[in-house]
């Protein structure tokens, strides 16, 4: 089936026979795919009953036995898919299930805690999934994330003796439609683990048809990336391998050049014509560690993307930090502001509040 007409369907959360729902958006061009399933997999319980029970048992019918199709979350590698199922629970309300491994190849644990940036990637994937499956957005459309905010609770981030199983309640709002499909939306998410709120997030994005995207980007869709620069010492940015370092030192204080290794299997899972937002988030986190001089655990992050980050132009990050002490506690948190720019034009601004793990 042509990606221009592809739509997937999920049953509504009801005891009655489900009515088909259409597809929705999130964050960068989808990797090319030869074919995609006509319909999304349904759980065995749903198929047998002809519907899904409502109420407190609804989460039990979200599958954790396989991932969603990788095309729905714009991943070429199945190993990078974090989502396992989804369910409509009301008008513009959904529940998504996800699983985090105890040891991800890139989002590695921090002092026994799951990396909070895996939560950001989970949110990104959730928006893409719902865009395609519930709001009618074809797989060949390009997505641009405009902003993302995330707050995590470290008490529920501990790596356990099994992978972390998550349920994510998502509410979509500010939806604009074009030709019956979502053109932009905002989505608010609550991530739960074992019934406890692990994180809250808010994000917005737009999706663009191929012809419009080509006009927007012009010849930028065929640029050659800059030569790979030398990495900052891994231990200064909270990494163990230089292949995972996305910063290069500069002679200027609190300033780094972005290092873009398009061969990286996670950050550049498939070919793209600009630097993905998750690369900029990782760069902001690494710049925070370098600025403070020790590894940190992000507690909150807020980022705004204002322009495309081009692959063929040097990109620089600048940082400044302010300490904050929580009232009634002796723990000092640091809030770091990271500004990313190319040719003196702002690309993104990120604020990260961290603690020492």
What does it look like?
The protein is an alpha+beta fold. 14% of the residues lie in helices and 32% in strands. It is built from four helices and twelve strands; from the N terminus they run αββαββββαββαββββ. The chain has helices spanning 44-49, 116-134, 210-217, 277-292, and strands spanning 83-90, 93-100, 142-152, 164-178, 181-193, 196-208, 247-249, 255-258, 297-305, 316-325, 332-342, 345-355. It has a twelve-stranded antiparallel β-sheet with strand order 1-2-4-5-6-3-9-12-11-10-8-7. A hairpin with a 2-residue loop joins β4 and β5 (181-193). 41% of the residues are buried.
Topology readout:
Blueprint: H1 44-49, E1 83-90, E2 93-100, H2 116-134, E3 142-152, E4 164-178, E5 181-193, E6 196-208, H3 210-217, E7 247-249, E8 255-258, H4 277-292, E9 297-305, E10 316-325, E11 332-342, E12 345-355
Antiparallel strand pairs: 1-2, 2-4, 3-6, 3-9, 4-5, 5-6, 7-8, 8-10, 9-12, 10-11, 11-12
In spatial order, strands of the major sheet run: 1-2-4-5-6-3-9-12-11-10-8-7
The secondary-structure element order is HEEHEEEEHEEHEEEE
Overall outline? globular
Low-pLDDT residue intervals, each spanning 5 or more residues: 1-58
* Helix percent band: 10-25%
Strand content: 25-35%
| Overall pLDDT score | 85
| Protein structure class | alpha+beta
Radius of gyration: 20 Å
What is the count of helical runs?
Answer: 4
Main β sheet profile: 12 strands, antiparallel
Q: Total number of β-strand segments?
A: 12
For the termini, the CA-CA separation is 49 Å
